[in-house]
Task: inverse folding
């Protein structure tokens, strides 16, 4: 049986799959298997994969989302270690070898993640994602991870026994399902980090991370689930409640833009329930009672006061913490 199972969930990513698969086939560590889980694609994914047979196992299902696709791959795989690779990302050739070395030198480490290089549609490249994530570390990092998400699916190598212990991806999460799993892992398990960028991530406009409706909705669920973990310290509970307040505010602001006023106000009141000092939520709640035309004028005036018309555009934002299959 192979030592490492590489699971690639894919939804309409036929144009990117060859480079992803080739980056796995070019790994310096050779004792691995590749499973591509086609999550109900409507493009020519199946025909593209024929050129890689028999090196790649092809699994097909109806469209259920990234969590279900990865779970299907986990169940069908045989390796002692499991790696995930999004269909539009690719690896450096030594990625698995470097991470296997970390796992085998310390049997108390259950997950190894790495830095990554992020490529944007406009040609901009961020060569080191973790450079702007100072909390990224090795060891028990649960308290750090709830403050700053720094573990992405394509960067990890995990012991199968760890996933069996904490459970697989939550298939009810259509976004942030990876953050949910990694937080559950870090709640009880030790991790290690390889600071070299071993992964290349495409941050595309069509990524699920760009879906604000899904992102704001499931960020609330993510924090609510985290708060249900047993025996949280007062510090962790306070930080999670603060972040839940922020998540509810962002959902409320999104719903205000969409003129879904009832949901907007419900989200903002929930935000204030978790952190009554959230001034942004208070302002947004007040804005929800303004006529749309007046609200637009208030926003334009605030932007003018901040000088947004004259400031250059900021650098592209770091990728969101949620993941996608492409």
Result:
């Amino acid at each position: 049986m192979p030592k490492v199972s590489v699971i690639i969930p894919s939804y309409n990513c036929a144009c990117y799959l060859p480079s992803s698969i080739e980056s796995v086939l070019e790994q310096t560590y050779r004792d691995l298997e590749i499973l591509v889980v086609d999550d109900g694609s409507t493009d020519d994914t199946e025909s593209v994969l024929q050129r890689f047979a028999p090196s790649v196992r092809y699994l097909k299902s109806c469209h259920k989302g990234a969590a279900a696709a990865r779970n299907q791959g986990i169940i069908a795989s045989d390796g002692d270690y499991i790696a995930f690779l999004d269909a539009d990302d690719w690896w450096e050739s030594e990625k698995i070898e470097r991470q296997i070395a970390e796992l085998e030198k310390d049997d108390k480490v259950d997950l190894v993640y790495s830095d990554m290089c992020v490529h944007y549609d406009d040609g901009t490249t961020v060569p080191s994602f973790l450079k702007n994530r100072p909390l990224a570390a090795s060891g028990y990092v649960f308290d750090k991870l709830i403050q700053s998400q720094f573990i992405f699916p394509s960067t990890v190598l995990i012991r199968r026994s760890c996933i069996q212990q904490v459970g697989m991806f939550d298939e009810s999460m259509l976004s942030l399902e990876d953050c949910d799993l990694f937080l559950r892992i870090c709640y009880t398990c030790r991790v290690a980090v390889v600071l070299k960028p071993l992964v290349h991530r495409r941050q595309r406009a069509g990524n699920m991370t760009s879906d604000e409706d899904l992102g704001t909705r499931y960020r609330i669920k993510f924090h609510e689930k985290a708060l249900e973990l047993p025996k949280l310290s007062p510090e962790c509970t306070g930080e999670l409640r603060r972040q839940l307040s922020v998540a509810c505010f962002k959902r409320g602001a999104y719903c205000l833009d969409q003129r879904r006023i009832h949901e907007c106000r419900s989200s903002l009141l929930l935000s204030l329930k978790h952190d009554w000092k959230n001034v942004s939520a208070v302002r947004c709640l007040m804005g929800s009672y303004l006529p749309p035309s007046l609200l637009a004028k208030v926003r334009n005036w605030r932007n003018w006061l901040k000088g947004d018309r004259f400031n250059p555009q900021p650098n592209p934002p770091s990728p969101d913490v949620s993941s996608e299959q492409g």
Summary: The two ends are 29 Å apart (CA to CA).
